[in-house]
Amino acid sequence: MIQRSTRLNAVHYELCGPIYEKAKELEQAGHRITKLNIGNPAPFGFDAPEAVIRSIIDNLRHAQGYSDHKGLLSAREAIKTYYAAKGIAGIHTDDISIGNGVSELILHAVQGLLNPGDEVLVPAPDYPLWTAAVRFSGGKAVHYLCDEASDWNPDLNDIKSKITSRTKAIVIINPNNPTGAVYPPELLQGLVELAAEHRLVLFSDEIYDRILYDEVEFRSTATFSDDVLTVTFSGLSKNYLAAGFRAGWMLVSGNKAKAKSYIDGLNTMASLRVCSNVPAQFAIEAALEGPQQMEELVLPTGRLRQQRDLCYDKLVAIPGISCVKPKGAFYLFPKIDVKKYGIKDDQAFVLDFLREQHVLLVQGSGFNWPQPDHFRIVYLPELEELSLTMDKLALFLANYQGNGAVAERKVVATM
After folding, report:
1. Which residue, 200, 188, 213, 176, is CA-closest to 311?
2. pTM, entire model
3. 415, pLDDT greater than 90
4. Closest of 354, 396, 375, 364 to residue 33, by C-alpha
5. Of 80, 113, 241, 315, which one has the fewest beta carbons inside 10 Å?
6. What CATH number does domain 50-289 carry, 3.30.565.10, 3.30.470.20, 2.60.40.3080, 3.40.640.10?
7. Under CATH, which number does the domain 6-47+296-406 receive?
């Protein structure tokens, strides 16, 4: 038998895991599946801005050759301008690398830093690629608590208690996936001070930094210190609704003089894949400097804001469901009363829901949450479909008995 690498033994990505595979089986059997497992805007009728599409088309002939391994200079200049306007100091275009989505760059950043046994502080719940990247790199993901009772903000005392001599970095996901939290400035200041005290790298995942509701304030982590080495990640997939283009970037800022070896390692990682896909790089300047379509979508009259509000209101009306209202991104991370519904295995719960109502969710443990009492909903469907889907959940839970079993029903919700 040909065996897979043992490095993969602790690597999981439940957004496309066993429940997703079951959904594909049901789809192949002829069922229509409502896929609320992943933040993929296009299937729900969201289009990237016209200027972004046009820029790729107009420059396609010029995209036939390799670019610089860090990316097109024009794209990196636009990224530099974007972050300088946010207040990040001392940026050079060589501090920016463009990748095939943020996912590739997360792997590069983590692999370039860790040696076997090194530790990285990762939030719980987290976007699971972060935990997977640490483990795949031979490191140990140490999960710190994000406190639901405090709007899902990280617990600074919990983080401090988990720092050891092996800790190399802290991951910050803000705006947060899966909770929708947006961290206040004083909390970010506290995280930066912890990193400075213990000489840690900050990995700041800011892929949703334009998807903000209720006039909430957002600040990039790197604006709080010119000394702490901070690696900031973003891209086109969420803010510009262009997930399939696979165009992401990372910016290294702070005291780069103390990190020459690490930065050289990042350069090596970038060069090993020659360059990221060039056509999508031509979209970056147009996206950052063109009309900001997202600004309208998050207004009270905007589609995303209305979908968030409807989904939240319908969820908290279901007996045994509570939820912190998200301030950013396009996810809710509701809590379910496991005693009321007899739930001991959150994966079994979402599988039962999929089998009966053909709606694909992700269980909370898929985001490295330690208890079987949460799940994530993507609220990208239009209002009518989203309302019907929440009605399906309410109907499903009305007689749910847990433990992998569903009570018989006299009525089945239909689309």
Report:
1. 213
2. 0.93
3. no
4. 354
5. 80
6. 3.40.640.10
7. 3.90.1150.10
